[in-house]
Each structure stands twice: as structure tokens, then as C-alpha cells.
Amino acid sequence: MYEYYVATAFYHAMLNNFASETSSRMNAMENASKNAGEMLDKLTLEYNKVRQAKITVELCEIISGASAV
Q: Which GO terms describe its cellular component (predicted)?
């Protein structure tokens, strides 16, 4: 009976270890996905700011050229 108890305790410890490892991996992947989403949002915002600045400069050049004529 003691051997069965030891084997069961060992098996239980292995299951706990597996569950803990799986949970840690899931949390790591969730955090990585969240960080990637935040980075994408920041890069999109930066891209849009640069694009808008370029459009504004081009419009100013067009208006300046039209008023010079």
C-alpha cells in the first residue's frame, strides 16, 4: 500500500509541475501578444504622424507655389 501511495504522490507532483509549466507558458504568450499589439499601435501612430507631416508640407509647397504665380 505504501508503494501505491508513493507512486500516486509522485504522479500528483508531476501533474502539478505540468500544469504550472503550461500556465506559465500561456501567461508568457499572452503577455507577448499584448506587447506586440501595443508596439503595433505605437508604430501605426508614428507612421500616421509622419505621413500627415509629409502631406502638410506638400500642401504648403503647393499653396506657396500657387500664390507666387
A: proton-transporting ATP synthase complex
Q: What is the pTM of this model?
A: 0.64
Give pLDDT tens digits for 27-65: 999 999 999 999 999 999 999 999 999 999 999 988 888
Note the Cα 17 to chain centre separation in Å: 27
Q: Tell me which residue of 18, 41, 40, 37 sits closest to 29, measured CA to CA.
A: 37
Three cell numbers written together for 44: 501605426
Q: Where are the alpha helices (DSSP H) in the chain?
A: 2-68
